[in-house]
Amino acid sequence: MWPNGREELNKAIDTFLQVSPNEPNNIPERTTRLFINQLHRNLDQVDPSKLDSILAYLKEAGFQKQRTFNQAIILFGKLGDLSSVLQLFDKMKKLNVPPTTAVYNSVFHILGKTQPAKALALFKDMKSSGVQLNGVTYCILFSVLKQVGTFGEVQLHQQELVIRGIPANLMLYNNLMDTYAKLHRMEKVLQVYNEMQKINIEPNAITYTILIDGYGKNGQVGKARRYFDEMLRKGILPTTKTYNVLIQLCTSRNDISQAVAYYEDMAKRGLKPTQVTYETVLAGCLRSKRADLVDKLSKALRDSEYVGSTIIYNALLNYHRTQGSPAQFHQCISEMDAKGVKPDVVTYNTLLNFGAEYESPEWLDSKYKEMIARNLSPNIITYNTLLKGLVRNQHFEKAWALMAQDAVHPDVVSYNIMVNGYSKAGQMEKAEETVQKMEASNLMPNTTTYNSLIQGYVNCSDVAKASAVYQKLLKDPFVEPDRITNQLKRRYLMRKSRLL
């Protein structure tokens, strides 16, 4: 008799493993099977530190009986240990112990998560072995086909269900609908939905969430909302996943007010937002620069049990940078450190961008070194951001030295930063020389290059040269004036020169 309760259970596990730690084959197989069965029932109460010892024991135990293999493989499947699942499955076959449907399904399921091609090969093996396929098998199959299947394959296997006489159920229909939705075949999703109701299988929240998500991702927002309304009319309560889908749909269309309304409706229904909920609605508010909502949702995420992802913190950092809020920017960095959120290359590029606008070259250099120390590889955005900081402080020699490094491959943006820096400093000869270097590197000036030169000459009160650059821009077949060019023309050139 195995004990109840976390503490007693873990003591019993210790005792079992100490009986014969180096000779698991000496323990009767029936006892091992009982041990595995108890692990199945109480897996959530097992001390995680004991799992390695348990798994090591099970891999060495000399199983002979089908039931023991079945239970062990299903347990490894629950733990997500693909390597051990396959090891035991191969061992089972070598001993001519026939796998049951449950074992095949367990191996099929865990393979399907990471190796869909191998999972489909296993499905063929399963069919040829003569083992009975069931509804669970086809649910797993449709989940795999979402990743690598074709429309024709899904249709073929849908027909197999009828041929094999596999009873239809809600889980099977939901999986089939979801597979068609992922393939963007909403006419088939609707067909399956209508079919299930004809045989009195009532849709649930999962069914409606699939419909809402499928129509939303296919741009049929009206239909997505109609199915949400139908769901409510039938008294089917939306789940957190339903709301996450609706919020994602709204933010993708920049309908932030409706996204926030769905977020607030969740709370009214007693549904707990997930990290996905917080981050999706917050990301939408950041993109639309809704300051009131950004503060509110940032606080909600901060006060929740969720740490927050690097992606959302990167978005917050960039928002505070573009809004000109250094204090909140630094607060966000401190929050990342305190929560243990790992920065990535985008984080450091944002930090350097902020530093190029607000901090000293020394601060920039320290952050760059910190980035390297974390084994993060700088990219051209990193180097261009460093260039901005150096040029802003008129450290042109250091900027050229950075561009000359082997790891750096300057692009048009790099040269434009230099041209703009020289133009702002009134060093127009250097600016023109930089354009020549740019062209010598087989990089062609763009509108930004011309605008910087025009602004530089205007600042130096040399309208004639500014006008000459403007004329050159007009003759360049690969460049067109933009809004800034036209503003410069109206404000300075047309007023001060008769040349235009």
TrEMBL record:
Pfam family for this entry, one: PPR
Gene3D superfamilies documented for this protein: Tetratricopeptide repeat domain
InterPro entries the UniProt entry points to: PPR_P_subfamily, PPR_rpt, TPR-like_helical_dom_sf
Ranges: PPR repeats: 65-99, 169-203, 204-238, 239-273, 411-445, 446-480
Recorded family membership: Belongs to the PPR family. P subfamily.
Protein name from the UniProt record: TPR-like protein
Organism ancestry: Eukaryota, Fungi, Fungi incertae sedis, Zoopagomycota, Entomophthoromycotina
